[in-house]
Input
Amino acid sequence: MSEPSDRPWLERDRRPPGVSDQTVEAVGKFDEALEWIERARGHLYDFHQMMGHADALIGEAADQLRDAGHQDQAQRIETELVGRNALEGRWSFQIVEEYDAIYWSVVRAASDELRKQLVGGRHHVFESEMKEDRRTHGARFHEQRPDDI
Output
């Protein structure tokens, strides 16, 4: 088996000495909130990519309308819709950037600081302990960590 210093990730989710159950639960709750925030951010990226794709399709439709002899309709679509803001003054990438700047990055920094101050910078301590409680000790595919194999 490797020495712990060779594989530090194997220790990063263990509870440091002296940390209370309440602290582990509270940090775990904050981590859960962060996971939901990450999911929301992912949906913003989905929105961003969907909007970009839709804008490109609208542009292609305008080109096809022009090719089909519908100049006025094509011109109206190009003028009113192609490149239009998704929100006041913003394309979708700007929405993502603003979310990242004023919310996501602040919560991430708070999460990092909370973990550093209260659980030695360790991630997923609550989940690690839940896994320990729920797994079947000694059974294959129920190992706590890869070094237990």
Q: What stands out?
A: Helices lie at 21-67, 71-80, 92-119, 125-134. Residues 21-67 form the longest helix (47 residues).
